[in-house]
Amino acid sequence: MDSALGFTIKSGWACAVVLDGSAKSPVVVASRRIDLSDPADAHGRQPYHATTGTARKPGPQLEKLIASVEEFGRQSVDGFIREYEKAGRQFAGAGIVVGSLIDPAQIANDHIRIHALEGQLFRGIVKAAADRRRVASFIWRERDIYGLAAHQLRRSESAVRQAVAEFGRSLEGPWRAEHKAAALAAWLVIA
Questions:
Q1: How far apart are alpha carbons 4 and 95 in whole angstroms?
Q2: Of 41, 138, 151, 189, which residue is least crowded by CB atoms under 10 Å?
Q3: What is this structure's pTM?
């Protein structure tokens, strides 16, 4: 049986999904939130922000904060993957869903650049953890993923959306957009 991981990246956390099965009949095994920054550190969730809309100054303090976030996130993602590997799963890959792939250096607006830097940081944490576990990773923008899946799975976009919505019926807890996107990314990996 094939297994795949899906992650939807948010600021300081990710929605993580484990999917088993085939491209024709995938099943969600797990869906949960994993912290990519220490919840006890108020600055870790948005490390490039000094205050609302203002960038934190470059230097040792920012470097220390980034290193702390990277270490915490690495342990969280690595622990999540190991948990399911110990249960006997071998992952075909990890799909990572992000809001943007724009290079922060190309963004003129300081506030938007801060958000892009944080997105780049958190997706990099997940990708690096997957790489360390020798799990191939693929990154897709959230706004593109349903169209890509419709093409790849040879279904209409509405049929893909309906199937992904159905995945959540067997689970306890929430099944929001970030859960669906992570599950769809895992489904694309299996396909």
A1: 8
A2: 151
A3: 0.94
Helix, strand, coil in percent for the chain, rounding step 5? 50, 25, 30
Q: Tens of pLDDT along 136-174? A: 999 999 999 999 999 999 999 999 999 999 998 888 888
Residue 18 structure tokens: 């484990």
Could you tell me the residue ranges of all domains in the chain?
A: 3-190
Pairing of strands 3-9, 13-21: antiparallel
What is the CATH topology of the domain spanning 3-190?
Nucleotidyltransferase; domain 5 (3.30.420)
In degrees and rounded to multiples of 5, residue 112 shows phi and psi of -65, -40
Strand locations in 22-104 (E) = 26-35, 49-51, 54-55, 91-98
- Per-residue tokens: 22: 């085939």
For residue range 67-123, list pLDDT tens digits in order.
999 999 999 999 999 999 999 999 999 999 999 999 999 999 988 999 999 999 999
| Unique residue bearing structure tokens 């940081």 | 121
| pLDDT per position as a tens digit, 110-143 | 889 999 999 999 999 999 999 999 999 999 999 9
